[in-house]
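Think of the structure tokens as a kind of shorthand, similar to the way a musician reads notation: each symbol stands for something richer, in this case the local conformation of the backbone. In the example below we present two proteins back to back. Begin with the first one, reading the sequence and then the tokens, and try to describe in your own words what changes along the chain.
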Amino acid sequence: MTYRLKREVVDGVVNISLGMPEADAYLKFVRDRCRLNTVLSYGYDLQVFLNSIQKPVLEITPLDILAFIESQQSAHNRQGRTNGLSIKGPGLSNRTIKRRLAAVTGFYEYLSVYHNLQLKTSPIPRGLVRRKTSWGNWYGRPTTTPLIRAPETLPRPLDPEEIAPFIDSMRFHRDKAMVLLMLLAGLRKSEVLKLALEDIDFGQRTLTVKEGKGGHRRVVAISDTGLQELISYLNKERPASGSDRVFLVMKGRNRGQPMTVGALDTIIEYHREKANTPGIQCHRLRHTCFTKLRQGGMSLEALQAQAGHRSITTTRVYLHLCPRELQQEYLRFSDSLFSEGRADE
């Protein structure tokens, strides 16, 4: 049987289904707790998994999981491979395979807890057992090696030579304002599009992000440059509308309606080609913002709050993007440490 992801809107609620009762119940469970994009991602990963193995969920074994991993790493999946810094292979990147295994693991945990299915053990191997050491156990480190290693990739900031012609190619204040909110305030593109008029505090020069990643709320600062471009758009271009969203369609039959992600992507792609700046991407604008802020001396804690990271571990990646600052910190302490060592001799 071939499973296909279906998306239906019933009474204003988006339902994602695969045609398997257990999987559909799990996707409904995820939908009630996560955003639509997360549900779609989980649904697609389950679709790939179930179509690959073609066995009832209670009959799947660890050997089937290992065979699934091998099939994802094979050459016929080459078209889905990313350019991340993952272990090289002919098929999908290890990061993609690891994400799919996470979705399947969550599926089986859901079945065990909420459906009381007779699963003695999950078919998803936790990893390969490695040699135990006293120091490893002392510090609480795991005694298994993960099945899939996905090295962390470093975000790539943009150069000023790319940013300037890209922004100069835009003639609407709306488009510039959206780009500057990503570049100067570090907003994600979804956060830009969901921004409401009441979320702008012109006096404090702040924006309230009500629907950040994971549904978390935060307040971010916005520079005068970005704020002025935003004011110019609101005063000169924003059409009259009953919508409270800041960024609206300005022309055509959808005039006055909130902009979609697809519309923003089209604008970015158009000006990327017009300015001949192929490296411009929405998320790279965000990475550039935090890299520059860190280079300017902004603390990791403040950077974490601006970025909306739940863990400061995520924010620490920007230390690696500022080698000059790392070198300065190292030299500041290393000289004194080595001089103390020589004095004791």
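Once you have a description of the first chain, move to the second and do the same.
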Amino acid sequence: MGFDSDIRACARLVQRGDPVRFRSVMASPINLRPPLFVIYAFNLETSRAAWVSKEPGIAEIRLQWWHDTLEEIAIKQSLSSHEVVSPLATILSPRSAQNLKRLVSARRWDIYSEPFENAVSFDAYLYDTSTTLLAAAADSLGAAEISVVKNFGYAAGLARFFQAVPRLIAAGRQPLLSLHEADLSELAEMGLSRLREARRRRVAVSKQAGFAFLAGWQTGIILNLVRRSPQSVKTGLRPPSAVFNSISLSARALTGRW
């Protein structure tokens, strides 16, 4: 797949809206970048749905449109031209398209102010948003054992969710079941345990699919920061310096040790 106008449009979307994933794609071999740009552009469009309007009904309509579009991709139905949908239809397997419908459905939590009911519902949100995205990205590149995808996807999703907490609080949300420091540290340790288990099974992920895991290159840094300084979750996690980020990402890309 080359860099046609749709791929370039997806790349611009990711560059503007998701710079962490954009940098991870740019650290990947050039021939692997197009599917990653497209899948991350799709993720960006669905994650924005809850924030583009104060009207829940409008956000619901946007998400339903993506849900229906994925169903059409899964059954190979003819689709209208769209800068994200058109290349997405050529990249996704029917299985990935069906699985990503769970991501769209999970994004409905973002629309409303109700907190998660319990730990099970919170974990399900992380799996449906982060793990399904990673699974689709990895599947577009090569083979990856699903248990590794689930563990790494959970850890990466948790790290990103921690980063989003101040914004969610400012929007009047109750993002986590508990904001007590001991509970935050325990949750971060759980994420680190999943991360360690995923990395222990790194050999079960092909070299090509491993580049999809690069999007979570900051995961360990963020989770360790929360474990040590849980109070920073509410005030805002300070990311590592740009120089450290660049060195860390480059090293993981070169060695394959995501």
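Compare your description with these statements about the second chain. The mean pLDDT is 95.
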